[in-house]
């Protein structure tokens, strides 16, 4: 069995908050599902985790009881084999530990901001004072190692330290337990956070690129709750044009019925609130709106000419590839994203959570590969255009930065084959998962990859399944393959779209009836 990393670096950090027993059991799960061998020896597990065979066997029995629907084992001659359908990612098991770990329960209780004294906290957690002291000491040791500016104090219980660091910890904390669970906050609903997100994006369209990321609503909710309880970030790490936007945001509250949220949450969404809501979302040293950026660019003839040349070259490239040209609003937003990407201070620690919402290098490579298959030569011609832009607005060319710029351009040109056809029938797709935010994320990715070739209908409740009709829906993508809908093709997915899922949808699109002339045009282009 190959040596493996038991957690990603981030997960490994947050897992240190678990008890030693829970850490070992979670690591056993990761070890087994990551193994490249069919069977694992108990002796091998014992040596790897530095414990007795009896301990390993006891842990395995408990894991079967805890996860009867996820883990099934066969034991033969001191060997163990996973059987049945087992999740391929360890994060499928996080929610249990997040919900049941006494360390995590304590921190979630503290986050609620209610004043719990020692005696009440002991009753809340069903532990003795001595046990509570040990838990607090363990959490403070964790902070010393991974968040050295923070500490857990009592009477009242609170996490003390610079507010930006406190929020960063809570971002990481809730991300760990948010993998497959329901909305984790009682103080504010997911629907309210989505409404606030739309409100912010109205004046700050650059936020829209990340608003479908699972962490976006989590960060926004944490910021809102901390602001509500008057825990404010006081530092000056702000986007350049935030002050000019705060006034216009306040003026548009009625348009987005923010007053209703203010009344229910008993909080005022004013200029200071906007500043606090953007912590971790709007990167320091960048622009949020195109107006302020255009003023800076127009103040420099060289920069103004560089932008003009960039869009001229991009238009020539996309026209040659038969992609529809961008309208001015989309060009403005693309300029905003590319310019911000070129800022040399974008990797500041204060921008860490923003950086988490970028596509990974592997995800960008996969995107580039797909584009290369459909539009041969597109990537090779786009690269020097992006590098030329970068050379005008940053001190040095950085490959990682160029890769991110590729992903931005892709987001404005959905990876479709629709530009090869004039008339076509759209594929009607319905999406249902157990989590509304997962459904929204999958719908967003479908639009990104297939654009106007499809129409997507998110299903928010099984009740609406009865209303699905094969005359309006061709395909149902679902994590629950239990529905029997006459005339509708059901395709089972996991919690995210895989390359295989996308390939299958492409095949379904290609099965639609196009005219023979259009088919010939496609084949000629491929040649």
TrEMBL record:
Membrane-spanning parts: none
UniProt entry tagged with the keyword Nucleotide-binding: no
Gene3D superfamilies: Winged helix-like DNA-binding domain superfamily/Winged helix DNA-binding domain
Domain Mga helix-turn-helix residue range list: 89-174
Coiled-coil parts of chain: none
InterPro entries with a match to the protein in the record: BglG_antiterminators, Mga_HTH, WH-like_DNA-bd_sf
Pfam family, one: Mga
Keywords linked to the UniProt accession: Transcription, Transcription regulation
Name of protein: Helix-turn-helix domain-containing protein
């Amino acid at each position: 069995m190959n040596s493996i990393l038991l957690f990603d670096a981030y997960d490994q950090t947050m897992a240190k908050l678990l008890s030693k027993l829970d850490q070992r059991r979670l690591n056993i799960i990761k070890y087994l599902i990551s193994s490249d061998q069919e069977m694992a020896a108990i002796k091998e597990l014992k040596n790897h985790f530095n414990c007795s065979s009896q301990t390993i066997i006891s842990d395995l029995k408990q894991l079967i009881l805890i996860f009867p629907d996820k883990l099934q084992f066969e034991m033969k001659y001191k060997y163990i084999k996973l059987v049945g359908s087992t999740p391929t990612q360890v994060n499928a098991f996080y929610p249990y530990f997040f919900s049941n770990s006494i360390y995590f329960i304590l921190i979630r209780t503290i986050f609620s901001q209610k004043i719990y004294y020692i005696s009440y906290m002991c009753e809340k957690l069903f532990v003795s004072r001595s046990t509570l002291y040990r838990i607090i000491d363990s959490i403070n040791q964790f902070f010393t190692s991974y968040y050295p500016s923070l500490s857990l104090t009592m009477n009242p219980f609170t996490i003390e330290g610079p507010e930006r660091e406190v929020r960063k910890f809570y971002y990481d904390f809730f991300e760990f337990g948010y993998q497959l669970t329901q909305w984790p906050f009682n103080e504010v609903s997911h629907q309210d956070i989505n409404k606030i997100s739309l409100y912010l994006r109205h004046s700050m369209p650059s936020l829209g690129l990340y608003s479908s990321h699972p962490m976006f609503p989590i960060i926004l909710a944490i910021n809102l709750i901390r602001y509500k309880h008057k825990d404010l970030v006081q530092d000056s790490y702000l986007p350049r044009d935030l002050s000019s936007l705060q006034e216009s945001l306040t003026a548009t509250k009625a348009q987005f019925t923010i007053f209703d949220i203010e009344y229910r949450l008993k909080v005022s969404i004013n200029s200071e609130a906007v500043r606090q809501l953007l912590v971790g979302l709007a990167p320091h040293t960048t622009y949020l709106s195109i107006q302020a950026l255009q003023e800076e660019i127009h103040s420099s003839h060289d920069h103004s000419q560089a932008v003009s040349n960039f869009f001229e070259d991009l238009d020539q490239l996309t026209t040659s590839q038969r992609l529809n040209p961008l309208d001015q609003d989309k060009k403005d937003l693309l300029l905003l994203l590319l310019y911000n990407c070129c800022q040399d201070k974008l990797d500041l620690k204060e921008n860490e959570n923003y950086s988490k919402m970028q596509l990974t290098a592997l995800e960008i490579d996969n995107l580039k590969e797909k584009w290369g298959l459909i539009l041969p030569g597109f990537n090779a011609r786009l690269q020097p255009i992006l590098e030329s832009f970068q050379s005008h607005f940053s001190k040095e060319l950085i490959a990682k930065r160029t890769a991110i710029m590729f992903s931005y351009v892709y987001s404005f040109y959905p990876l479709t084959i629709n530009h090869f056809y004039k008339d076509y029938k759209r594929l009607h797709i319905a999406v249902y998962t157990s989590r509304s935010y997962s459904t929204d994320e999958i719908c967003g990715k479908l639009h990104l990859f297939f654009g106007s070739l499809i129409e997507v209908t998110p299903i928010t409740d099984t009740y609406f399944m009865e209303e699905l009709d094969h005359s309006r829906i061709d395909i149902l993508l679902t994590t629950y393959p239990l529905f029997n809908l006459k005339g509708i093709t059901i395709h089972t997915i996991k919690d995210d779209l895989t390359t295989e899922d996308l390939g299958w949808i492409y095949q379904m699109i290609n099965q639609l009836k196009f005219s023979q002339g259009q088919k010939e045009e496609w084949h000629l282009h491929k040649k």
